[in-house]
Write a sequence for this structure.
């Protein structure tokens, strides 16, 4: 399994940021926040004969993160700027995914060495319910005490490219689904 992640990461890393103009919309069951469109469909837009498997892998990662960036922008419009993003989940095993997050969010992204947030949440809930820990915070502290963290900073030279990427993606979504 780790070998599969390493191959995906290597191919996505080899592709240029912006995936050679390839845009991916990850709407296999409609789109969620912030656009909310149950009729939206997943798609690759901009495929050419020179599109590589690495471009497609990177476009998938960029498409997922771009939706998260839109949600982060919405949250910040309501609550103020966030200076760091703490990320979890299976895709955080891919270093390139974390770099893409930092660049599309325009701020540092910190991930723990343990990426399985759902399993951690289940453990914390069960441990508190069973009385093993007095609070969710105490259970989290116990579970995460030995974890290492890594932070990926945004790359300033990619910020303009990713702003243009997000603008092109928003325009495509507007044309296709609104």
């Amino acid at each position: 399994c780790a070998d599969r992640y390493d191959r995906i990461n290597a191919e996505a890393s080899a592709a240029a940021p912006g995936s050679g103009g390839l845009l991916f919309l990850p709407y296999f069951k409609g789109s969620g926040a912030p656009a909310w469109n149950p009729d939206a469909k997943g798609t690759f837009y901009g495929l050419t004969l020179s599109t590589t498997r690495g471009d497609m892998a990177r476009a998938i990662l960029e498409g997922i993160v771009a939706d998260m960036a839109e949600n982060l922008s919405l949250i910040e419009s309501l609550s103020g700027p966030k200076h760091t993003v703490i990320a979890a989940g299976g895709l955080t095993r891919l270093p390139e995914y974390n770099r893409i997050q930092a660049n599309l969010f325009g701020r540092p992204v910190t991930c723990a060495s343990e990426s399985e947030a759902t399993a951690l949440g289940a453990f914390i809930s069960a441990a508190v319910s069973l009385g093993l820990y007095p609070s969710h915070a105490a259970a989290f502290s116990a579970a995460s005490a030995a974890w290492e963290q890594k932070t990926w900073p945004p790359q300033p030279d990619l910020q303009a490219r990713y702003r243009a990427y997000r603008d092109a993606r928003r325009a495509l979504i507007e044309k296709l689904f609104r």
